[in-house]
Amino acid sequence: MTDDRTRIVENKVKKVTDSLYKKGSIDSDLRRYLTSSGGTSGKLQGNPKLHKPGIALRTIVNGRNHPTEKMAEKKWRMNCEIM
Question: Is the model's pLDDT at 57 over the cut of 90?
Answer without folding.
Answer: no
